[in-house]
Design brief:
Layout: H1 2-14, E1 26-29, E2 31-32, E3 41-50, E4 53-62, E5 65-66, E6 70-71, E7 78-84, E8 90-93, E9 96-97, E10 103-108, E11 113-123, E12 129-137, H2 145-152, E13 158-161, E14 164-168, E15 172-173, E16 178-187, E17 190-191, E18 195-196, E19 204-209, E20 215-218, E21 221-222, H3 228-237, E22 263-269, E23 274-284, E24 287-297
The structure holds copper (II) ion.
Residues 76, 79, 92, 94, 199 line the site of copper (II) ion (CU).
């Protein structure tokens, strides 16, 4: 057995190639995840630290020039959304920008598998850009169709996280057009009394198309004031920040101590028809919660 292993290794070395050490950095080019064409390109270098952990180093460039200046958006310069390719796991993390223009973070994923990493940032003067990478973390277990369906939680307007239950007014979106969704949050059956802002927003909603991997990140507004008429006026006045959405201005950031109403309004434009998974992230008390939903855009 040992002799066969030694022979195989010798053969490899004889090919003039040496087996890349397991933690050799791997490079990935980013795919632009928003409609339209990007002004910049993005690259990511991943150095494996363990089966479920890697050091990520990400930078964006215009031509050969590495971008060094990024605007703050919702209190951070980059929002990194990490989703397993079976859409069962969701992470929202924040790589830190270094003076050399590189964002760095040590990412730990919950289980083996391939993960889509969405890097959402605003290079100064270039507007919002989102790039997608696909990073392998070991070999995923084979998921049965039943397990996949359960993971997707298709057709449910309510979703639970800890003591909270979130109910959406609808699971229907309109492709290419704004749709207002109301999210009602209860805690132990009563309207949630202890919701607070997360990263300056009442909540964060990330939609990803299961087919095209199109990415939409919106910030719900606290309260139900945004009727369809006011949605139109929002357009005119730029009330609500909806990155990835045409025609909306910056949202006023909320202090951490503020209260968020148990009813929130999401204004969503699905870029195309298809099935989207939504992760609605909010702060209840001092803890973060995320509730998944599946919506259909027609
Ligand atoms: Cu973020």
């Amino acid at each position: 057995m040992m002799r066969r292993f030694a022979a195989a290794l010798a053969g490899l070395l004889a090919l003039g190639g040496s087996a890349a050490p397991a933690n050799a950095p791997a490079r990935y080019a980013g795919a632009f995840a928003l409609p339209g064409a990007p002004h910049e390109s993005a690259e990511l270098q991943a150095t494996r630290l363990g089966p479920l952990q890697a050091r990520l180093d990400l930078w964006e460039s215009v031509g050969a020039r590495t971008i060094a200046s990024y605007d703050l958006d919702m209190t951070e310069r980059m929002h990194m959304i990490v989703v397993s390719d079976d859409f069962s796991r969701f992470l929202h993390v924040h790589p830190q920008l270094a003076p050399d223009g590189h964002f760095r973070i040590v990412l730990r994923v919950p289980k083996p598998g391939r993960y889509y990493v969405f890097a959402d940032a605003e290079p100064h003067g270039l507007g919002q850009a989102v790039f997608r990478f696909a990073l392998p973390f070991g070999r995923p277990p084979i998921a049965t169709p039943i397990a996949q369906a359960r993971m997707l939680a298709i057709g449910r307007r309510t979703s639970r996280a800890g003591p909270y239950t979130v109910t959406l007014s609808s699971l229907e979106l309109t492709a290419g057009k704004p749709k207002l969704l109301l999210a009602h949050v209860t805690k132990n059956g009563k309207p949630a009394p202890d919701l607070h802002p997360y990263l300056g927003g009442a909540a964060h909603a990330v939609f990803i198309s299961l087919k095209t991997l199109a990415y939409v990140h919106v910030h719900p507004m606290s309260g139900t004031g945004a009727s369809p008429a006011s949605a139109k006026s929002c357009d005119a006045n730029g009330m609500a920040g909806m990155s990835g959405m045409p025609g909306m201005g910056e949202m006023r950031e909320l202090p951490d101590s503020a209260s968020v109403a148990p009813d929130m309004t999401l204004r969503v434009v699905a870029p195309a028809a298809g099935i989207y998974k939504l992760w609605l992230q909010f702060r209840g008390g001092s803890r973060l919660y995320v509730t998944p939903f599946i919506l259909t855009a027609r």
